[in-house]
Amino acid sequence: GASSAGSSDADVDEVEAMMGKQIYMVSDGTGWTAEHSVNAALGQFEHCLVDRGCPVNTHLFSGIDDVERLIEIVKQAAKAGAMLVYTLADPSMAESARQACNLWGVPSADVLGPITEAIAAHLGVSPSGLPRGAPGRNFPLSEEYFRRIEAIEFTIKQDDGALPQNLHKADIILAGVSRTGKTPLSIYLAQKGYKVANVPIVMGVNMPKTLFEVDPEKVFGLTINPVVLQTIRKARAKTLGFSEESRSNYSEMDYVREELEYAGKIFAQNPSWPIIEVTAKAIEETAAIVFRLYHDRRQKYAMPRISKLY
Amino acid sequence: GASSAGSSDADVDEVEAMMGKQIYMVSDGTGWTAEHSVNAALGQFEHCLVDRGCPVNTHLFSGIDDVERLIEIVKQAAKAGAMLVYTLADPSMAESARQACNLWGVPSADVLGPITEAIAAHLGVSPSGLPRGAPGRNFPLSEEYFRRIEAIEFTIKQDDGALPQNLHKADIILAGVSRTGKTPLSIYLAQKGYKVANVPIVMGVNMPKTLFEVDPEKVFGLTINPVVLQTIRKARAKTLGFSEESRSNYSEMDYVREELEYAGKIFAQNPSWPIIEVTAKAIEETAAIVFRLYHDRRQKYAMPRISKLY
Ligand SMILES: Nc1ncnc2c1ncn2[C@@H]1O[C@H](COP(=O)(O)O)[C@@H](O)[C@H]1O
Ligand SMILES: Nc1ncnc2c1ncn2[C@@H]1O[C@H](COP(=O)(O)O)[C@@H](O)[C@H]1O
Ligand SMILES: [Mg+2]
Ligand SMILES: [Mg+2]
User: Fold this and answer.
1) What is residue B279's predicted lDDT score, i.e. its pLDDT?
2) Ligand 2 pocket test, candidate residues A32, A37, A44, most atoms within 8 A of CB
């Protein structure tokens, strides 16, 4: 049976009870789909998560492609009072998960089963039932694969205003003052296959000329609430330590406000750049807005959408 | 009603029929959850996708938080013969989607509804029903948020062997010859909050001393099949053009084999580094393996898992 190394089951139960409710996630692949879905679903319980009395603990079991390990995990879930969220491509594995959960009273949810069935009916094609990475499946080095890697490498090289002579090669250019999230946003967009350059706006420093020579349709300005920006900059100055703190006005309120006003003037002079307010938005939320605007400008559908051919 | 700008419905139907089957994805948030799930589910139909006779076209509609736009999209889906995959936090929006799909005969799948219900029952707490980004929800600048951004910034600075004096600050160090995917893998891991450094192995170039001074438990070697590596390097040399092609042996088979053997010797001298074979693996698959090994080494559970507290 499954027991934690070096401690009795009683100890384990105690510790896990203290940590709150358990969610076990099982995948025959990477587990990222289950994790992503559980993450989004947990957004619906933010009002009661950490600091509010209903902590949740997730446990990801990836690469589970044999029924013995699967059953062991379900048994362990039963012991821990956990629920099970799973993505299993092989129908007999999915069925085993369902039955074992029923048998041991483990609440469960199949993440992809229902969508896969609906797509199968829609396409009129049966699912392969083969997990990703199953032997025999060959991984095609697709053009899209190379394009994504190139986009990431391009984006890294263009971080923080580097190599302004390459701005014309970017698909998307982000401009904003320090700590508006340009770097993580650039990387997020790059992972979707876009070449991104980001250009800092710093009071008293000239913007690169090339920024005003490229297609303005691909430039996006970022702006943020000054109070929130100050908070972020203070945290940043702490992390960086002395050397950067010597730029003492960096996180001072007057300076923060002035720099944002300076950015606002540049934006006003370039009215075709969309300006995105990033306050209180996670990186992936800002990314969704950038993509929406980017695709709306490039297509003639009546309803804005992002289309992709498989 | 919804009709495509500048073309009759007949035209639209024709074009869309040529493009294959349509999948509409609707979210009140970013749409990334629906996209991720549909992507994974489509993996089950790889045997019949592009080049195999059943092309699929996805259309992502993000930020859909009012019922009018929702209904318009369902109508358009009906016209295009599309199916609808949705994530809608507001129960009345989700119910509207279901009803409109029934009414107009649009096949549909609710991605998060069932998981959210199962989690609600497990926690004994009702879901908020508020979409992300709903007014009033405040976005906490959590420690994890800052940690992730710092990880991305650290990782960018450490790309391609830069700043070897900082290797001790990394959580994870990747070593491998050129084109084993170190850079995109580093970025993928960084987005999950880990500080990653990558160090290229180049025949005839000394590895930085610091690599052998850090905790060997955090170093991972990457290896790859020589034939596949040569294919990737040839594609790379083409993209880079002349300057790099002058390093003419870079993609020659003998050189590729020798360099991989050289890497193999370094790995043999450092037996505590796990070596990961990346051939035929997508970046996120290699990332899952790195995480599994990384967490297995750091915890004492009987069953390997990646745990997270919410
Ligand atoms: N390219 C693919 N081919 C076949 N199955 C896939 C593919 N990508 C993901 N899956 C399946 O989708 C589910 C979620 O994948 P993952 O996000 O890797 O855990 C697992 O059951 C995988 O086996
Ligand atoms: N932090 C969150 N709080 C509340 N709802 C969320 C959160 N994250 C995601 N969601 C919901 O989960 C679904 C998928 O989100 P998304 O991936 O942004 O499309 C949508 O219905 C969102 O409203
Ligand atoms: Mg930056
Ligand atoms: Mg690299």
Assistant:
1) 94
2) A44
Task: Give chain A's mean pLDDT.
Answer: 90
Phi, psi of A155 (to 5 degrees): -60, -40
SS3 B205: coil
Residue A134 is given by DSSP the state -
Whole-angstrom Cα distance, residue B42 to residue A29? 14
pLDDT band at B213 (very low <50, low <70, confident <90, very high): very high
Q: Where are the beta strands (DSSP E) in B49-111?
A: 56-61, 83-87, 108-110
Strand blocks (E) in chain B: 21-27, 56-61, 83-87, 108-110, 172-177, 196-201, 219-223, 275-277, 306-309
Res A239 pLDDT > 90? no
User: pLDDT for A28-68, tens place per residue?
Assistant: 999 999 999 999 999 999 988 877 788 999 999 999 999 99
Amino acid at A66: D
As for ligand 2, residues whose beta carbon falls within 6 Å of it are A 40, 43-44, 46; B 27-34, 87-89, 112, 130-132
DSSP 3-state of B214: coil
Please give the pLDDT value at position B247: 57
| B56 alpha-carbon distance from chain centroid | 20
Would you call A301 and B45 a contact, using CB atoms and an 8 Å cutoff?
no
B86: β partners:
B26, B110
What does residue A94 show for φ and ψ, rounded to 5 degrees?
A: -60, -40
Q: Which of B49, B129, B282 sits opposite A139 (nearest CB)?
A: B282
